Amino acid sequence: MKKIVLVTAVWCTSCIIMRPRYLEVIKNSNTVKEFNEYDFDDDEEIVDKLKIGNKLPVAIIYDGEEEVSRIIGEKSINELKGLIGLKNEEI
Description:
Blueprint: E1 2-8, H1 13-27, E2 32-39, H2 44-49, E3 58-63, E4 66-72, H3 77-84
Parallel strand pairs: 1-2
Antiparallel strand pairs: 1-3, 3-4
């Protein structure tokens, strides 16, 4: 089962664009079972723990407890599906 951790910021234009895309992909996925979202400015402890840089948004994809990839910046919905590993799921 996949888990996604998304780090965004209210001042980040790319985050404003990408958040609805992530939510759409996750809502329609049978594979993503957990989704957590954090604010870059408000959740400093988590941001530090996850080693998030200054380029946002950042999505960390976990398969079970293992981090399998990070998605940084703007992507299309089809790119997100591929990067998350949902190529065969209809979105």
